[in-house]
UniProtKB/TrEMBL annotation:
InterPro entries: NCS2. Its main location: membrane. Residues 65-91 have a biased composition (Basic and acidic residues). This is Solute carrier family 23 member 1. Residues 1-91 are annotated as: Disordered. The chain crosses the membrane at residues 144-163, 219-239, 245-266, 273-292, 312-339, 459-478, 484-503, 515-532, 548-568.
Length: 643
């Protein structure tokens, strides 16, 4: 018969020495009856021993290996219990605040309104990519092809967004053009400089088309081939092995150098009219940082009638508001004649672009010609693909937390990366001049609106697709005055830099070892590309293809800095905690459970149809992008997961 007596066992988390001075911390556990498990007592987290516990010093304290093993088990059990309790509290708090969860379907008018908002948040960042590339493609500011490229990238972003939310990771996450490819793409275009303007003016229409499409086809080929790596990584489930070597000290220089290396472009745009550029920067800072938490009255249709609600407008669309006000200022100055002819801030300089753009046009693959593949371009873009993979995985976890979903399991992450790889391949095939990646700013919109429904993002994808079919929509964004774009670039590129540096939050920055790895990687990632661009003829190996490869790679800051960070952080001696690897990998461990250990809530990552069939197929257990994936070590025979 089990005894009802209660006893207290005190374990000493220090040396098993009997001296009280050698006991820095005590853990108390309560044993009820003859139960085998030890339950943590209310005093479990007491940092100093009580008087009663001090009297127990030297009485029956376990010694040697048994003591250490017992101590480790108890510490681990307490830590797991604390983590579980905190996670339940945070999840419950998040779910309580959400208006709509991942699986919920808001009314259609709500989906349209919020979907349009997501579109407005991503479109400016997306169309800024062709805005940057078209001058290097030898396209003049007034050429209609600029609008067609902008419409194409919006169109492809819509397709990939819809596919990602429906069949990919199935989280409310927006896909758009990635700035991570800009570094290597600019290096590729540096190998094909534009001829003098006088020579361009003497070309026929067909000759000019051949001039700029040749450069676009080189970009297309590099993006298409490099995207295959991303597709393979997702399809094979190799992400776990990849992340073992990609640490915070690899991610920080790689992503931050994207922003650092683009400052000359932002500066040149702002220099066209520093007054308007400064106005844009100030407006964006005020809206996003100072007024972000200020609610504004807005009309709301609720329960059959219109009422006045409050929305955080400045936090939701600060870029749209800043561009709109700065653009209106440019229009007023132009109308008043205060801006001289030829000033980049004038709003009447490129109106012909809108007039020449078609109302309706369907983008199609290889519309600029067949992609041309070069080894140098492909290897350079691979650095952007790796950065995109790591950034997207972080976005998946952040989006799941904000949307009230469980941490994405391995099959969902695999499928998300696979879908982004396919999307990047489509972006290259269609000739957008970029790949696709997840957009962090739209995840922030989910947190603000408290609407985590994937249906809203599916509506946003359809809106992008429809806008991409209307050529004049893309043309409107192309005619934004250049200094306004420069002001936006200053803020956007600085945010990209800070996102990279945020990976250092778990790294011990007081460690000389870490400071060396970080500083050397960033500094060299800036210095080497600058020297190579100033002395392009210095790299001569005797093999033209190798010279071209080295020129592209060493001209790409993120490649140089990322490779140095990868090499140094994985070879220079340092503890896992010092390098930030312990905390970095801890966030991935929740999703590395076996399917039978995952909660039923993870069913939100199941495919929208066909699950009953997949669960009956044994082969589906070994396909990393299917929800039935149980790992390569799954036993042969039998069906998949139970329903």
């Amino acid at each position: 018969m089990a005894s009802n007596r209660t006893s207290v066992t005190t374990l000493y988390a220090g040396s098993p020495d009997s001296s009280p001075a050698s006991v820095p911390r005590m853990l108390s556990y309560t044993r009820t009856g003859d139960a085998a498990d030890l339950q943590p007592d209310a005093r479990s987290h007491t940092m100093a021993p009580t008087a009663l516990e001090m009297t127990e010093v030297g009485r029956g304290v376990p010694e040697g290996e048994d003591f250490r093993r017992t101590q480790q088990q108890m510490d681990k059990k307490l830590k797991e219990e604390d983590q579980r309790r905190k996670k339940e509290e945070m999840d419950g708090h998040m779910e309580e605040k959400l208006l709509y969860g991942v699986e919920d379907n808001p009314p259609w008018y709500t989906c349209i309104m919020l979907g349009l908002q997501h579109y407005l948040m991503m479109v400016e960042s997306t169309v800024s990519i062709p805005y940057l590339l078209t001058p290097l493609l030898c396209l003049p500011p007034h050429h209609a092809a600029r609008a067609l490229i902008a419409s194409t990238i919006i169109f492809v972003s819509g397709i990939v967004t819809f596919v990602q939310t429906t069949f990919g990771v199935r989280l409310p996450i927006v896909q758009g053009g990635t700035h991570g490819f800009l570094g290597p793409i600019l290096s590729i275009l540096a190998l094909l400089p534009c001829p003098p303007q006088a020579e361009i003016d003497g070309l026929t229409e067909d000759e000019f088309t051949q001039l700029w499409t040749l450069r676009m086809r080189n970009i297309q080929g590099a993006i298409c081939v490099a995207s295959i790596f991303q597709v393979v990584v997702g399809a094979t489930g190799a992400i776990g092995g990849l992340l073992r070597w990609i640490t915070p000290l690899v991610i920080a220089p790689t992503i931050s150098l994207i922003g650092f290396s683009l400052y000359p472009i932002a500066t040149s745009k702002c220099a066209s009219n520093w007054g308007i550029a400064s106005l844009t920067i100030v407006l964006l800072i005020v809206f996003s940082q100072y007024l972000g938490e200020v609610p504004m009255p807005v009309p709301v249709y609720r329960q059959g009638r219109w009422t006045v609600g409050r929305a955080y407008v400045f936090k939701l669309i600060p870029v749209v508001l800043a561009v709109g006000l700065a653009w209106a200022t440019c229009w007023a100055l132009t109308a008043a004649g205060l801006l001289p002819e030829g000033d980049a801030a004038r709003t009447d300089a490129r109106l012909a672009v809108v007039a020449d753009a078609p109302w309706f046009r369907v983008p199609y693959p290889c519309q600029w010609g067949a992609p041309q593949v070069t080894l140098a371009g492909t290897v350079g873009v691979l650095a952007g693909v790796l950065a995109s993979i790591v950034e997207s995985i972080g976005d998946y976890y952040a989006c799941a937390r904000i949307a009230g979903a469980p941490p994405p399991p391995p099959h969902a992450i695999n499928r998300g990366i696979f879908t982004e790889g396919v999307g990047t391949f489509l972006a290259g095939l269609y000739g957008t001049g970029s790949g696709t990646t997840s957009y962090s700013q739209n995840i922030g919109a989910v947190a603000v609106t408290k609407v985590g429904s994937r249906r809203v993002i599916q509506y946003a994808g359809v809106i992008m697709l429809l806008c991409g079919l209307m050529g004049k929509v893309g043309a409107v964004f192309i005619i934004i005055p250049e200094p306004i774009i420069g002001g936006i670039f200053v803020v956007v590129f600085s945010m990209i830099t800070s996102v990279g540096l945020s990976a250092l939050q778990h790294v011990v920055l007081s460690s000389p070892r870490n400071l060396f790895v970080l500083g050397f990687s960033v500094f060299t990632g800036l210095a080497v590309p600058m020297w190579v661009k100033q002395h392009p003829g210095s790299l001569r190996t005797g093999v033209a293809e190798l010279d071209q490869l080295l020129l592209v790679l060493l001209s790409t800051s993120m490649f140089v800095g990322g490779c140095l960070g990868f090499l140094l952080d994985n070879t220079v001696p340092g503890t896992a905690r010092e390098r930030g690897v312990v905390q970095w990998r801890a966030q991935l461990q929740q999703s590395q459970q076996q399917p039978q250990q995952q909660s039923e809530a993870s069913q939100c990552y199941d495919l929208p149809f066909g699950m009953s069939l997949l669960r009956r197929c044994a082969w589906a257990q070994r396909v990393p992008i299917l929800p039935t994936f149980r790992g390569w070590g799954a036993p042969r025979g039998g069906g998949g997961q139970g329903a």
